Amino acid sequence: MKFRPCIDIHNGKVKQIVGGSLSDQNSKAVENFVSEQDAGFYAALYKKDNLSGGHIILLNPIGTDYYIQDCNQAKKALKEFPQGMQIGGGITEENAVSFIEQGASHVIVTSYVFKGGKINFDNLNKLVSTVGKEKLVLDLSCRKRNGEYYIVTDRWQKFTDVVVNQDTLDTLSEFCDEFLVHAVDVEGKASGIETELVELLGRWNKIPITYAGGVSSLEDLNLLKELGKDKLDVTIGSALDLFGGSIKYSEVVSCTDQESGSRKVSE
């Protein structure tokens, strides 16, 4: 299990929020933590600890003043850790290359691909043509409805008709290098992982998947490793002491294997 660190940016500041609380109206969200440090600070820390493959997420809508502020923060992080972090939030065919040129290793995409509630293969192919499959991460962040996990878009506010299952993973893996999956119903709550989703993802093993959502303890990391059959990487937000939580960042770094994931987390 590899630890993939995060930098979430909202209203021009590094924050941790409750995932399902984002609203376009007045750019509101329920905040767990607002950092006094900028995004460059966190990127420099991750670089020092050799934690490549983490992600920067821009949480404001594209076309707003806050989105521009988010991008300015992201530039600081990409400058500190070039080729060390991925970036998502408002990524389209038009702006994807600019983020790669600024130093992102990959672009992370949801809404542009899952347009109108379905998979927009035209947009997906445009992205592959623009940046290449090897630099594309698809964000399959999802919420449970009627017993199944549906991909959600537009800052996790809108349900699509696309279910996260083996067939969907098989199909989409042909177009991207990795998946990022936020369990939105537990995101930012540090209330425990979404076990059913983790088991579903752990039964599939073709390209890397990073799981995010609900990790609240080292015990949760062990459970994630067990239920995910040691196939999933992990990101931790609100529960990490870097962002006001109780899990020590240094312990997560030391007990997750950045190479093979072979070490067990110590409780």
From TrEMBL:
Pfam families: His_biosynth. GO terms for molecular function: 1-(5-phosphoribosyl)-5-[(5-phosphoribosylamino)methylideneamino]imidazole-4-carboxamide isomerase activity. Pathway: Amino-acid biosynthesis. Coiled coil: none annotated. GO terms for biological process: L-histidine biosynthetic process; L-tryptophan biosynthetic process. It comes from the Bacteria. InterPro entries: Aldolase_TIM, His6/HISN3, His_biosynth, Isoase_HisA-like, RibuloseP-bd_barrel. The keyword Isomerase applies. GO terms for cellular component: cytoplasm. Keywords: Amino-acid biosynthesis, Histidine biosynthesis, Isomerase. Belongs to the HisA/HisF family. This is Phosphoribosylformimino-5-aminoimidazole carboxamide ribotide isomerase.
